[in-house]
Amino acid sequence: MDNWKDNRSVFWTLAGPGTFWLLVFFILPLGFLFVMSFSDKAIINGEVSITEYDYLTGISNYIRSVDTLYLTIIWKSIWVSALATVLCLLTAYPIAFGICFASEKWKPLLLLLVVLPFWINLLIRTYALIAVFRSQGYVNLALGAVGLGPYDMLYNNFAVIFGLVYVYMPFMVLPLYATIERLDKSYLEASLDLGASQFTTFLKVTIPLTMPGIITGVILVFIPCLGSFLTPDLLGGANAIMIGNVIERQFKAANDWPFGAALSFMLMYATFAALMLRAFLAKRSAGVDV
Amino acid sequence: MAEQMKPGSGPLDYGNRLWLKVLFGVIFFMLYVPIITLVAFSFNTDRRGIVWRGFTFDNYVKAWNNSSLIEAMINSLMIAFIATLIATVLGAMVALMLWRFRFPFKGAYEAFMGLPIVIPEICMGVALLLFFNETGMMTAVVAMPWPLNLSNIIIAHVAFCFPFVAIVVRSRLVGFNRQLEEASKDLGASEWQTFWKVIVPFMMPGLVAGALLAFTLSLDDFVITFFTSGPETVTFPVKVYSLVRRGVSPEINAASTVLIVITVVATVLAMKLQAPQKSGKG
Fold it and tell me: For A107-139, how does the pLDDT look when each residue is reduced to its tens digit (9 = 90+)?
């Protein structure tokens, strides 16, 4: 690797455009949003203006965002995301485990099958779920055939959680697969040889050794769940709104951009907290590195 | 005791355990049934798309004749195409820079490059909406002729796509043997010639994989486009969103199937190119 001082012109040519793009079209907009979160709608001639703002008036938007109504929604977003993450982990672990122990012939195909849905448009996958779950959907048709239902499976928390698990599971499988694949299988043999049962071995050897993969997977699923907008919007409707939907409403229907900006920053802080937690946990856990 | 081991009974032979196979079956069933039914029902004659009534291509014809849907699709492809071009160039340059140079605060710079990947999409979407509004770009761009009226969306797509390209290209560059570069220079090639004749050919699989990744990311994006598109410009996911809100229809199934086919082909291609090469090339 060269020192950047050895060839400054090449360094700046390569670094310039990308850095510029990110600064102007990403960091600067975030700066605008940050300023907006401390602003208020301007009051012109005693009326609240729709398009004008008084900038940097104070933290009133943040105070409003910790109002019970919004705290409830933030709290609900957190537990819905946490539950979806746990369910993802419970379904993804056996999948990743199975792929690692599958024959070499099957491995690439199985991996492709897990990852492929991830590449299909999020909106289309969510739409596909609506067709399955709606009151005249396939699940209810199947249940109806055996004399059950129909049940309302859409527009509630169940639909949102199922949708999140469905949509984000590949994010969990990949890091788990990466760690389990690198796990030295002789540890498992040793544990079984020394008399531990399969269950004990799994609990005391496999899980601790694959902990880094679990942590990465949990964060990779939890963060997009927390910030999700589309899934709760289409599957949850008005009954299961999450923080993303509230933000969208402030910027579209409610037209309260300063408050929406403050909520966006609350969401970003929560995201960064999750990332820092990951870094902290990864440092403490001694297992196979991802 | 020389007991014959049946498949699946070895202590570590989990891959052949029946319960794991059953679990696999169930989870893959849940993953694929919604998508498969979506595709299957795009060929259904029933308008409401609930019961299977017979095979037809009518929905595709209808989707094809639906001018707003086609317009949205053309917009999406145009955006994806231009955004991919820019993102690939920017991403490759950043990757080359990170691969070649050592500089102060490199770790911080890498974190900065990763920001668009970790920040919730909705935050990036509203930030860009605000930015385009406050700088007057929104009104200015909407008045421009096609395809310039898509500029804001393209700018936004480039911003979240090129860090992904940089990651893919950089992981390809890690395997580069720098002695090849030295050999090229020893043999009299200039820095520029070495770059185009040695480094770029080596990067090529990474470039193509990164470009295909950027293309699918751009084509798929809903949230950021939803906020950065003006009222007049509609992309395919935004159009589908507005249709889905009004209910399920076989036409959406047909249009979605087309999009699924495009992305699946692009993904499989990208994976093939990214797979470690077995031959000694490169």
Answer: 888 888 888 887 788 888 888 888 888 777 777
pTM, two decimal places: 0.84
Q: CA-nearest residue of chain A to B222?
A: A123
Q: Give the gyration radius of chain B's Cα atoms.
A: 24
Which CATH number covers residue A252?
A: 1.10.3720.10
- Are the beta carbons of B219 and B263 closer than 8 angstroms? yes
* Pairing of β B101-102 and β A2-3: parallel
Interface of A with B in 119-138 (CB under 8 A): 119-125, 127-132, 134, 136-138
Q: Is residue A275 part of a domain?
A: yes
Residue ranges, CATH 1.10.3720.10, chain B:
60-274
Is residue A4, in this structure, part of any structural domain at all? no
The whole-angstrom separation of Cα A220 and Cα A225 is: 9
B chain contacts of residue A97, beta-carbon cutoff 8 Å? 14, 20
A·B CB contacts under 8 A: 237
Structural tokens at position A103: 């024959």
Q: Which two tokens stand for residue A219?
A: 């964060």
The mean pLDDT value for B72-79 works out to: 89
Question: Choosing among B38, B88, B151, B181, which should be mutated to test the A contact, i.e. which has the most A CBs within 10 A?
Answer: B38
Q: Which residues contact A50 (CB under 8 A, 6 or more apart)?
A: A41, A255
The CATH code for residues B60-274 is 1.10.3720.10
Q: Which of these, A176, A174, A162, lies nearest to A83 by C-alpha position?
A: A162
Q: Tell me: the pLDDT tens digits for B117-167?
A: 888 889 999 999 999 988 878 878 877 877 878 888 999 999 989 998 998
- Terminal CA-CA length for chain B: 52
The domain of A124 spans: 61-284
**String of DSSP letters for B210-264:** HHHHHHHHHHH--HHHHHHS-SS---HHHHHHHHHHT---HHHHHHHHHHHHHHH
What residues contact B134, with CB distance under 8 A and at least 6 apart? A32
In this predicted structure, what is the pLDDT of residue A149? 67
- A205 near B CB under 8 A: no
What is the DSSP track for A262-279?
Answer: HHHHHHHHHHHHHHHHHH
| Nearest CB to A112 within list B13, B222, B271 | B271
- Contact status of A144 with chain B (Cβ, < 8 Å): no
Taking CA–CA distances from A102, the nearest residue in chain B reads B15
As for the ipTM of the complex, it is 0.84
| Number of separate domains in chain A | 1
B187/B69 Cα distance (integer angstroms): 56
